[in-house]
């Protein structure tokens, strides 16, 4: 099985909307994330217009039957002077889970941001109830840096936000 990532295009919008609204994906994405077609289309357009500052990517998998859309992820510049990017929106369609697709795709995006776009630091935040995502972040080299206690109202409860960071030199070793 091969995995690749690329910037999302207009023809990917329907897939991205369906993925973000899937009952097994939606609970784990940020509550304020736009999931309707117009918001997703605007994010895709922005990614194409501002490739260094923002990116909406699709994950594709070829398991012998040709390339299929399997997931999505994104980044946004958080601090231009210090070259920090914030990662978010990693989602893999449930039919592709369990094959480490997210691991391989995330490593590709991390290397692209750190070495091609010259970011120094990548950051992400994961809901405290999302143990699978925390294991993923640590597996691909992110370091747990802290917790925002009961920071977000999600699913009727206050939940923690767990903070992670990855530095360029972490991948140069």
Give a description of the structure.
The chain is of the alpha+beta class and about 170 residues long. It has a single domain, classed as 3-Layer(aba) Sandwich (Aminopeptidase). Helices cover about 30% and strands about 40% of the residues. The protein is built from 5 helices and 7 strands, in the order E-H-H-E-E-E-H-E-H-E-E-H. The chain has a 7-stranded mixed β-sheet, with helices on both faces. Helix 1 crosses helix 2 (about 35-50). The protein is globular. The model has no long low-confidence stretch (mean pLDDT about 95).
Class derived from helix and strand content: alpha+beta
Largest sheet geometry: 7 strands, mixed
Low-confidence stretches: none
Look up the CATH topology.
Aminopeptidase
- Structural domain tally: 1
Strand content: 35-45%
Give the assembly state of these chains.
single chain
Task: Considering the chains and any ligands shown, give keywords for the structure.
single chain, 173 residues, alpha+beta, Aminopeptidase, 29% helix, 39% strand, globular
How are the elements arranged and paired?
Blueprint: E1 2-7, H1 13-20, H2 37-49, E2 54-62, E3 67-79, E4 84-92, H3 101-116, E5 121-127, H4 131-139, E6 143-154, E7 157-167, H5 168-172
Parallel strand pairs: 4-5
Antiparallel strand pairs: 1-2, 2-3, 3-4, 5-7, 6-7
Helix pairs in contact: 1-2
In short:
Helices cover 29% and strands 39% of the residues. The chain has 173 residues and is of the alpha+beta class. Helix 3 (101-116) links the parallel strand 4 and strand 5.
């Amino acid at each position: 099985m091969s995995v690749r990532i690329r910037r999302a295009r207009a023809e990917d919008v329907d897939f991205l909307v369906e993925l973000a609204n899937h009952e097994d994906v939606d609970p784990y994405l940020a509550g304020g994330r736009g999931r309707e077609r117009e918001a997703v289309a605007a994010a895709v357009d922005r990614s194409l217009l501002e490739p260094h500052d923002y990116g909406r990517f699709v994950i594709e998998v070829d398991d012998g039957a040709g390339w299929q859309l399997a997931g999505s992820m994104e980044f946004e510049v958080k601090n231009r002077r210090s070259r920090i990017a914030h990662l978010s929106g990693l989602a893999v369609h449930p039919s592709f889970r369990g094959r480490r697709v997210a691991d391989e795709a995330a490593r590709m995006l991390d290397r692209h941001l750190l070495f091609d776009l010259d970011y120094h630091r990548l950051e992400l935040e994961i809901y405290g109830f999302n143990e699978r995502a925390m294991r993923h972040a640590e597996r691909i080299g992110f370091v747990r840096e802290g917790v925002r206690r009961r920071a977000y109202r999600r699913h009727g409860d206050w939940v923690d936000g767990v903070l992670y960071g990855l530095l360029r030199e972490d991948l140069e070793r």
